[in-house]
Amino acid sequence: MTALSGAHRRTVGSLPFHLERRMLAGILLVGLSVAGGLSLWRSATRTTTVLVAAADIQPGQVIQGGDLRVAEAHLDSNLAALALTNSDLAATVGRTAANAIHSGEMVVRPDLTTGPVLGADQVAVTIPVKADTIYPGVRPTDEVAVLATSDPGKADSRTVTLLDRATVFDVGLDQGVVRSIPAVAANQGATPKNITIAVPRSAAEVVANAIANSQLTIVLLPQQGSGSKQQGP
Q1: Residue ranges of the domains in the chain?
Q2: The whole model's pTM is what?
Q3: Which of 39, 98, 132, 229 falls between 20 and 30 A from 221, CA-CA?
Q4: Helix or strand run (H / E) with residue 161
């Protein structure tokens, strides 16, 4: 009886220790679960201040401050790398839209371009040029006028303005290099051998006829607010 009582006392005495360990383990698991839940909740509710279109922005439009506003958005990791935040506002103003951005849509980096963009009613026409008929430092995004001279060298020769204003889309250089974005140095000493300009679709036939039958002169113009606006003949 004495031995049994002692064994019974040792068994009863060990229960609180096991219960305490189980209780601590349970509390730890609950704490980890709560911490994990809080982390997921914070991740799901974390937002970033991004730039969105305040109104519809068309391809080729030069973005102005009034075209943009800020909004809060939840971004996943892929979209976060593309999104423009409020810290990008100053750098975004003055850039050209490469795509249509609808009002309220978030503006992302692929929506912007450093070069000219063809509008829906425009085509790109390539004009062969001679060194003495074009400014050698002309670059993509420059704006030019196109003059056409019929019967050059003859008494009845005359020159007319073929295009009041057009945007340079590409410049082909004499060493065969073609650029579609502006260069830091104007043509880097090379002479243009052809120039591609964006013109209204309605003017394409007139320009093509002038290329075949007239001598064309490219006149460099001062920049306007938008590089996508051209006028026909």
Answers
A1: 1-45, 48-113, 122-221
A2: 0.50
A3: 98
A4: strand 158-173
